[in-house]
Amino acid sequence: MRTGVTMKAPAVILNAPQLAENIGAAARVMANFGLGDLRLVNPRDGWPQPRAWTSSSGAHWPLEGARVFARVEDAIADLRLVLATTARPRETALPVLTPRQAAARLRDGAAAGWSAGLLFGGERAGLESADVALCQAIVTVPVDVKFRSLNLAQAVALCAYEWWVGIEPGPPASFPELPAPAEQAAMLGLHEHLEAELDAAGFFHPPEKRASMVRNLRVALGRAGFNEQEVRTLRGVITALSEGRGRVLAKLAARNAAAGEP
Fold first, then answer.
1. pLDDT tens, 93-105?
2. Is 236 helix (H, G, I), strand (E, B) or coil?
3. ∠ Cα 108 114 118 (to 5°)
4. Quick one: which of 22, 26, 95, 190 has the fewest CB in 10 Å?
5. The pTM is what?
6. What are the extents of the domains in the chain?
7. Burial (0-12, 13-18, 19+ Cβ within 10 Å), 181
8. Cα 60 versus chain centre, distance
9. What's the topology of domain 11-167?
């Protein structure tokens, strides 16, 4: 929900990430959803890693600003709220949240001026109990029990998305607003135009069912919620079809006249 207050986005802390490609993919989804503070704890292959830039697909700023730490404790030392993401039960007794619930808690903390972070474990084994014990809650994605495994970047994406939709709940501004529905006078003109052409084509048969057929057509067209341009387009379609039928009938009449047929 928009609060009118600029809220500091949570940090993303990757503990012992193994693959540069996953770090880059995580940076990419961070950029998608307004996160820029990337912290790496003991990346297996060191840092920086050029393959991370390749996998980020142009989202370079989280990578260029990434900070490297030797311990989780050092990476989270300046944060007031840290949530650990894990799918494995741990001995630590902490509240367990979904990404949506976690995002709400992060936004509440950010609105209060707290610095916060999401802690993610490495690809092979996730977080250790000692890492989880440093946090204030656990975040678990409610996935299908038949297959619980999530890629590191996927986990980051789910949490980052839930954070972002709470800040920007509407569709992107690049999508235009839907045009207003057509006035009822325009819809009535469409109905009468269509019904007249259907009368001429002998569509309403038997005649005693005409009223119910007209009613069903009007209900269907009304349910569509056409705008003014769509109404004009449909009336143009009806006109083209009726004129085309007229041309066909005129050709048939001319051919019959030339052949001396009635």
1. 788 999 999 999 9
2. helix
3. 80
4. 95
5. 0.70
6. 11-167, 184-258
7. middle
8. 23
9. Alpha/beta knot (3.40.1280)
